[in-house]
Amino acid sequence: MTTSVDPEFERLLEYVRDARGFDYTGYRRPSLMRRFEKRLHAVDAEGWEAYRAHLESNPEEFAALFDTILINVTGFFRDQETWDLVAAEVVPRLLEHKDGNTPIRVWSAGCASGEEPYSVVMLLCEAMGEDRFRGRVKVYATDVDEDALSLAREARYLPKQLETVPGDLRERYFRPANGELAFRKDLRRCVIFGRNDLLRDPPISRVDLLFARNTLMYFDGAAQARVLSNFYFALTRGGYLVAGKAEAFQAGGHLFRPYDLKRRVFVKDGAADMGFRVAAIPEGQREPEPSNLRDVAFEHASIAQLVVDEENRLVAANQPARAAFGLRSRDVGRPLQDLEISCRPVELRSLVEEVRERRQPTSVKEVRWQPAKGSERIFDVRVEPLGDADRVVGISIAFVDVTQHRELEEHLESARRELETAYEELQSTVEELETTNEELQSTNEELETMNEELQSTNEELETMNEELQSTNEELETMNEELRDRTDETMRAYAFLASVLSGIKQAVAVVDRDFRVIAWNRLAADLWGVREDEVEGQDFFALDIGMPVEPLREQIMRVLEGMEPEELDLEGHDRRGRVARYRIGFAPLNGEPEPSVLGAIVLVNADGVS
Fold first, then answer.
1. Any alpha helices (H) in 196-273, and if so which ranges?
2. Cβ–Cβ < 8 Å for 74, 113
3. HSE-up (13 A, CA, CB side) for residue 437
4. What SS3 class is residue 235?
5. Could you write out the DSSP letters of every residue in 455-507?
6. CATH number of the domain that residue 553 is part of
7. Is 70 in contact with 144 (CB distance < 8 Å)?
8. H helices present in 129-210, as ranges
9. Residue 463 maps to a domain
10. How do residues 462-509 score in pLDDT, each as one tens digit?
11. How many domains would you assign to the chain?
């Protein structure tokens, strides 16, 4: 099958662009057609139109097609000579011209599965030190292939993939993980991965070092010029562009000054600033538009734009708008209200009328758009009048795609603690970063002071340890004394038990709360209640056959230090026989006297019948 430009193939590319939003019209035709042919033969399709019909009836074929087109060829420190030059000359020059606290931004465009951005991280860590790297460097890694980005975020590689990494770097920056090697998590946080289509999406700005190796070679001259102009916009003055050794700039090469042409390293010296503009795509690739609105910058702007005239007819829709909202050439000239875009994703008719009447721009933030095919996208919509103070000749409608920005914000919010540095980069101003650096310097001084205090504390702890050893010896002596006293207590308890058992009366001893603390054997025999059953119980709550409530007054007299009176009561014993009790009372004295700890109740039972 021929690889020349074929109208049917061009229509197939337009269908892929309109159906899924992947625009391959700027790719070099020979290599692009070879990859399409591979899928065409795989599904036994007879020609481009047949393959297009196969895509329409089998949407899952898109995934196989995109995997075939997006060839991810990468590796750690690929083309070692280029990396040696970057390490030996480019990075030192970059650091030399950067203030010690100024952030450094690196962009790896077409990062594939992440080997290139992680190589950059290792190189900069070796040059700056890990602490300075974490505090100053942010690496942005982008690709159009979501599957490759998922692998890059995991940062897990087989040992064979790390053969080009020097052994000392492999040991410092990778950790074993279930038979694989994972890049260190603390440094992985410094790399921000995101999807970016170099032909459609806006570039990352304020970049100091940009890697785009073996990426531009797939684009034709016009598309290559556009990508290079975006790279020129992205780089700061004095920033470096590292291209692949197979890259041959067909257009746009005048924007950069060669630093080392053999190794494809270029520098932005700012010489092209005065005449810089976004490159235009050749006339043959544009869709028809009114000549007064045909503008290269409009057609290939990084945002989707529409223009309607005084009669609310659509007179222009640039390439991003056509791809995003499924507009066709035949839609140009139709009334806005006849198009689906007039009410979806946002009600445009009322916004257009408002702008036409007030002659002031208006905007709607975060409008969500769910295409028939593809994932949800989020736009900021801005509607502006075109004309002068006397007359509005048209209305400009711009859709700024903020989907990636919103996804990144949500991702950063959910991982705020782990990605604190990235959150600050996105949310803070340069002044806040400078303040943070000053706080870090102050913290470092405080840590040094704390270290000295810790050393002093350590000496104090050693002294305390000696004191504790002495205290321990004293405690051992006290423990021996306590054992002696315990033995004495046990002997006293045995003596008391012997005394109580020898008394020929039933004895109950209560404390000041009327709880039983002693109960001799005769009491247990008399009332049928063992000592362990009444110990700790309220004496006046006991059901022992003898009325106990009349004893309360005399026990209170004993506790108050007054002389009690003996009582004669009648009750029954444990067998239910009637018994007459003669009850005496005595204080339970403590030390020092005359403190009263409780009362002793002495009971004689006689006259049992």
1. 221-234
2. yes
3. 18
4. strand
5. HHHHHHHHHHHHHHHHHHHHHHHHHHHHHHHHHHHHHHHHHHHHHHHH-SSEE
6. 3.30.450.20
7. yes
8. 130-136, 146-154, 167-173, 185-188
9. no
10. 889 988 988 898 899 899 888 888 887 787 667 776 777 667 788 999
11. 4
